[in-house]
Write a structure and sequence with these properties.
Number of strands: 6
Oligomer: single chain
Largest sheet: 5 strands, mixed, barrel
Strand content: 35-45%
């Protein structure tokens, strides 16, 4: 019985670790189309899959309001830094990515409005 419990714990742990690190690409901008979005601020929560910028595609301007996502990649190459004033209206080309049991946005092109 002890052996079965140890095996069950090992399998559960392995599943948890692989699921937390899994990336799955989902829908995003079709082709080279830019989509209107709002970067509403910076995620300052302290958790393993937090940090980065909040973004939404519904025109919401408050962080963590409405349907929002976290941006998965670094936006400094596009001139987006924490020192900017938010909310910031942008147009983006993106893909949805599944990781940490959440949906993130990976931006491949960004233009400030």
């Amino acid at each position: 019985m002890k052996r079965v419990c140890q095996l069950l714990i090992a399998v559960t742990s392995l599943y948890s670790f692989t699921n937390a690190s899994c990336n799955k690409v989902g829908k995003g901008s079709p082709g080279n189309q830019l989509t209107d979005a709002v970067i509403t601020g910076i995620d300052q929560r302290l958790c393993p899959c937090c940090g980065g910028f909040f973004i939404n595609f519904d025109g919401e301007t408050k962080p963590q309001s409405g349907k929002f996502y976290l941006v998965d990649n670094d936006l400094s190459a596009y001139g987006i830094t924490p020192s900017l004033t938010f909310p910031l209206a942008v147009k983006v080309e993106y893909q949805m990515i599944q990781k940490c049991n959440s949906t993130f946005v990976n931006i491949s092109k960004l233009e400030k409005k």
